Amino acid sequence: MEENLVHIYSTNQLYLAELIRQMLFDNDIVAFLVNKQDSTYKFGEVELYVNRDDIIRAKMLIKQFEDQ
After folding, report:
1. What is the domain range of residue 62?
2. Which one of 10, 12, 41, 48 is most buried, by most CB atoms within 10 A?
3. What one-character-per-residue DSSP string does the chain give?
4. Is the Cβ–Cβ distance between 15 and 46 less than 8 Å?
5. Residue 56 — very low, low, confident or very high, per pLDDT cuts 50/70/90?
6. How many domains does the chain have?
């Protein structure tokens, strides 16, 4: 993975990771998902990565999203 990307969020729910990724995109932050879930049993994590320059803003937006 590119060294300029930083892990900022993990969940075991793919739909939630997708919602957060889209919310970040809507706020001009490019985010990448890494799905580490087992394809059969759906256990494991989905990780969200953003550019190092967007960490603070992305974390703030995710906090706002979770507080709704």
Report:
1. 5-67
2. 48
3. --TTEEEEEEES-HHHHHHHHHHHHHTT--EEEEE-S-TTT--S-EEEEEEGGGHHHHHHHHHHHHH-
4. no
5. very high
6. 1
Q: Does the pTM of the predicted model rise above 0.85?
A: yes
Residue 25 has pLDDT above 90, yes or no: yes
What pLDDT is stored for residue 1 in this prediction? 56
User: From residue 5, how far is each of 26, 30, 33 by CA, in Å?
Assistant: 19, 10, 11
pLDDT value at residue 42: 72
CATH number, domain of 21, equals: 3.30.70.1530
Report whether pLDDT(19) > 80: yes
User: By the 8 A CB rule, do 37 and 68 touch?
Assistant: no
48: its two tokens: 């969200």
